[in-house]
Amino acid sequence: KNRFATQTDIVNIITWRAPSAGATPVAYRIYRDASLTQLAKVVKANGRKKFKFKDHNRQALRPYTYFIISVDAAGNQSPAAVVKVKPKD
Questions:
Q1: CA distances (Å), 78 to each of 19, 29, 65, 74, in order?
Q2: Can you tell me the distance from the alpha carbon of 34 to that of 13, in angstroms, rounded to the nearest whole number?
Q3: Distance from first CA to last CA of the chain, Å, rounded?
Q4: Cα separation of 81 and 44, whole Å?
Q5: pTM, 2 dp
Q6: Is there a contact between 41 and 53 (Cβ–Cβ < 8 Å)?
Q7: Over 80: is that where the pLDDT of 1 sits?
Q8: Residue of 60, 78, 58, 62 whose CA lies nearest to 70
Q9: Mean pLDDT, to the nearest integer, of 39-56?
Q10: What is the mean pLDDT of residues 42-71?
Q11: Are 1 and 44 in contact (CB under 8 A)?
Q12: pLDDT tens per residue, range 64-84
């Protein structure tokens, strides 16, 4: 029996591509706060060019902001790219 049949899973989906210039990222760190303390996920690059992050169990009608940092093989980090997800009406 599915006890959660009446629940809705709100999912934010962020997609991006690897940069075409500069150091090749080995991973991306996705944070939920500007102070970069709430790590949501580390996405490994593994030579891929396209990436997707799904953030489940979000609240309806609430905006979310994510901060994505790329990390290269030497451990260098990029400045955070800010992604804002606005709710649909």
A1: 11, 10, 18, 12
A2: 19
A3: 32
A4: 17
A5: 0.84
A6: yes
A7: no
A8: 78
A9: 92
A10: 92
A11: no
A12: 999 999 999 999 999 999 999
